[in-house]
DNA sequence: CTGAAAGCGCTTACAG
DNA sequence: CTGAAAGCGCTTACAG
C-alpha cells in the first residue's frame, strides 16, 4: 500500500491535451473567476473542458497554486489545550467558517506557555499560513505585539490583549450577571475563583462581579486558580475555610465543578448551603448531580466570527473587535432550598 | 496590515547568490540528508551556506517542496467530534507525534455521518494529504473498505473495522474488568448502556461485560444510546424502570454521568443503591460529586501510536494493529455504603 | 566537490 | 476567444 502505487491525479495539462486546448485556457475556465471563464473560452470549449475535468476527476493541486500565487489558504490556530471543551468548541466554529471560505486550518496546543506559543507560531509560519487565530493570548500582550509588529495577519479569540482585533464574550457583563443574581438571592459574603491571572476572560469576569458588589458597598474575596477541576477544588477549599462565603463564582465550569466537590467534601450542600456558579455553560453543567448555574457564552459563534474577522484582515479591511452577549442560565446550584 | 506588506522570505536562490554557489548546492547542504550534505560541498562552503541561511532566516517553502517531491508531509484526521474530550485527547497524541515526524495535521469533524465522512475525506485528499487517520470508523466498514481499495494510506484509531490497521484500547477486556468488579460486589441484575451500534468501542466493551456475566450463567440487559450525557440519562431512565438493575455499566463517561443524573432523579443514591461505572476515565470522573468508577484507556498514547502506525504504512512497511491495555479505576460510584 | 538543466502544476501578464 | 511563455521555489538525475 505504498504511496507509489497510486496513479497520478489529473492535471491541467492532462485536460488540455484531452480537450485540445492550451493549459492556460483550462486554468481560466476551471479555476478562474466566472468572468475570467466567460472571457477565456466559448460556451462549447468551456463545456468540453468541464466535462473532461469531471471525467478525469480533476482537483487543482494546492501546492502548485500556493507556490504560484503566494497564498496558501491556510490558517494556523493556537489554543491552550484542545482537550478543553471550551477551546475545542471555539475551534469547531473556526474550522466550520474556514471550510466555507475554502481555507484549511492547523490547530496546535500552546499549554499557555510562552515558549510553546512562540515555537508553534513559527511552525505555522514556516508552513506558510496566510494568517493566525490566537485563542491563547496573554493579557500582557508581549507576544502578540511582536507578531503585530512583524505585520503578520492575525486575530484573537476568547481572550483579548493589547487592543488587537478580537472576538470575545462580553465577560465583564457576564460577571455582573452572576453578581446581580447572587445579590437577588441575598448573598452578601461571596468569593470568586478567578482563574489564571494572564487570561482576560478570568480578569474581566472577576472585574464585572466585583464591581457590581462594590456598587452595593460589599467586598469580594478573590483567589487565582488553574482553569481545571483540580484548580477549582483547591481554590474553593481555601475559600471555604478562610472566607466562609455563602456563594462562590468560578470563572469557568470546570473550576466550578471542582468547587462543588470541595463544598461536598466540607459536608455542605451545594445550592442549599453554598451557592456555586460557573461560566460557559458547558454541556455537562446541566447534567451534573447538582445542575450548575452558569453563564452561557456563544463559543461556536465566537470561533466562526473570529475566522470571519481574520478574512477581513486578509482582505486588507479594517477589523472591528466584537464582544458577544452572555446569558445567565440559573440552575439548582444557586437555588436556596 | 495587508499581506502585500510583508517582505519576501529568503529562498535557496537568495542564499546561493549571497554565498556565490549554485542553488543545487544550497539545497543539498540545507535540505538534504547529512550524507548528501557532506558530499555536496566542502566544510567551508557548507558552513558559509548555513551561516547565510541563518542570517537570512531561511525556511524551506513547503509548497515548492511538496510540488516537486509529490509528498506533502500532511495527514488528515477525521473524528466524530473534537469537542468530545476523548477524541480531542487522542488527537493531541496524533498531533504530538506528527510534529515529531515533521508532519502537520488537518482535523475535521464527521459527526459520525457517512456523507460528512466522505466529504471531509475528499477535502483532505484534495489538499493532498499523504495519509489519513480515521477516529470515526463505522463497524460495518463500508467506507474504509472503499478507501483501502483506492490504495489511500490510512489507519484507524479508537475504533477498529474490517481488519484494517488500527490502534485501539482492548475494549473487550475493559468490559470484562467492569463485569468482574460488579460480580465481586455481588451484583447479579445488571445493565449496559451500550452506546451507538456502529462503534466497535461500545460493541466490544458490551461484549466483554456480557460474556463475563454469561460465564456465571447471568443475563445482562443492554440498551443502545448516544455517547453523550443526554443519551446516557435517557437510557438509564428506561433501564431503571424496566429492569431495576443494581449496577449499570455505561460504555463511556459522559453516558455514565447522564446515568448518575437519572439515578438521582429516581431518588436513588449512586453507589449506594445503584452502582454506575463508565469508560475512559475522563479528567472529570474523579472530580464528580460522586466520583465515578471508570476504565482508564490510554487516549493520548493511542493517538501517538496511530500516527506512528501511519508512518509505517507510508514507508511501505507492514502495519500491525495494536490493542492497548485498559485499567479499572474504582471510585465511590460503585462502592457499597 | 560543484553546477546546469529540467520539471513538479499552477497563474497571469502579454500578444494576437 | 485562445495561446505561448515565464516563473513561483524547490529536488534530482546527469555531467564533469
TrEMBL record, chains A, B:
The keyword Transcription applies. It comes from the Bacteria. It holds the Pfam family LacI. Coiled coil: none annotated. InterPro entries: HTH_LacI, LacI/GalR-like_sensor, Lambda_DNA-bd_dom_sf, Peripla_BP_I. SUPFAM superfamilies: lambda repressor-like DNA-binding domains, Periplasmic binding protein-like I. This is LacI family transcriptional regulator.
Amino acid at each position: 500500500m505504498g504511496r507509489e502505487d497510486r496513479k497520478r491525479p489529473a492535471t491541467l495539462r492532462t485536460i488540455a491535451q484531452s480537450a485540445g486546448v492550451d493549459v492556460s485556457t483550462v486554468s481560466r475556465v476551471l479555476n478562474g473567476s466566472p468572468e475570467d471563464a466567460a472571457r477565456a473560452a466559448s460556451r462549447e470549449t468551456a463545456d468540453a473542458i468541464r466535462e473532461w475535468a469531471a471525467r478525469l476527476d480533476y482537483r487543482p493541486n494546492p501546492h502548485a497554486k500556493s507556490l504560484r500565487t503566494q497564498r496558501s489558504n491556510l490558517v494556523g490556530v493556537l489554543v491552550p489545550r484542545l482537550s478543553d471543551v471550551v477551546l475545542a468548541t471555539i475551534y469547531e466554529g473556526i474550522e466550520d467558517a474556514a471550510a466555507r471560505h475554502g481555507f484549511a486550518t492547523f490547530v496546535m496546543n500552546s499549554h499557555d506557555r510562552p515558549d510553546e506559543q512562540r515555537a508553534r507560531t513559527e511552525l505555522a509560519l514556516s508552513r506558510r499560513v496566510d494568517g493566525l487565530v490566537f485563542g491563547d493570548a496573554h493579557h500582557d500582550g508581549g507576544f502578540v505585539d511582536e507578531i503585530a509588529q512583524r505585520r503578520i495577519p492575525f486575530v484573537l479569540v476568547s481572550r483579548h490583549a493589547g487592543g488587537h482585533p478580537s472576538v470575545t464574550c462580553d465577560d465583564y457583563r457576564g460577571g455582573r450577571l452572576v453578581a446581580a443574581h447572587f445579590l437577588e438571592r441575598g448573598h452578601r459574603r461571596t468569593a470568586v475563583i478567578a482563574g489564571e491571572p494572564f487570561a482576560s476572560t478570568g480578569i474581566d469576569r472577576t472585574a464585572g462581579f466585583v464591581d457590581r458588589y462594590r456598587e452595593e458597598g460589599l467586598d469580594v474575596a478573590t483567589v487565582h486558580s488553574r482553569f481545571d477541576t483540580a484548580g477549582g477544588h483547591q481554590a474553593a477549599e481555601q475559600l471555604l475555610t478562610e472566607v466562609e462565603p455563602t456563594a462562590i463564582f468560578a470563572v469557568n465550569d470546570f473550576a466550578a465543578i471542582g468547587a462543588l466537590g470541595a463544598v461536598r467534601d466540607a459536608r455542605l450542600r451545594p445550592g442549599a448551603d453554598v451557592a456555586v456558579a460557573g461560566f460557559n455553560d458547558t454541556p455537562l453543567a446541566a447534567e451534573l448531580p447538582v445542575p450548575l448555574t452558569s453563564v452561557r457564552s456563544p463559543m461556536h459563534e465566537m470561533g466562526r466570527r473570529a475566522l470571519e474577522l481574520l478574512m477581513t484582515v486578509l482582505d486588507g479591511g479594517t477589523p472591528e473587535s466584537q464582544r458577544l452577549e452572555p446569558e445567565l442560565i440559573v440552575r439548582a446550584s444557586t437555588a436556596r432550598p
